[in-house]
Amino acid sequence: MRPDPIKRIDTAFFWDACEQGKFVVQKCEPCNTLWHPPRPMCPKCHSVEKTHQKLSGKGVIMSWVRQVRPASYGFENSPFVILVELNEGLRIVSNLISDSVPVIGEIVEVDFEKTVGGKSVPIFKRVVD
Ligand SMILES: [Zn+2]
Q: How much is the pTM?
């Protein structure tokens, strides 16, 4: 089982949303910039006035890797680690739940996987036409 996420003051909104099955990022109020991972201020204009925006959860695989050493603590196998460019333009590092090798350019969609303590973390799966 996956370890629980560690909630901090700037990341609690993200993990709370994941528990509700929502994929959200921070959005700057003055300049509308979206960013991830969470941080206290806008990376573009440095404003601390922010809100949250729900994303489509869809994107494209930009890169991937699979570790060849033994699986990390909490994992039975080493999942594929993927870099996803989301439809909204942000990039996120996550896991692809699949037995077959990822292909760059494949369309993926967010899903949520339970952790050992019953929390949820975002992972991705292929979008099947
Ligand atoms: Zn801004």
A: 0.89
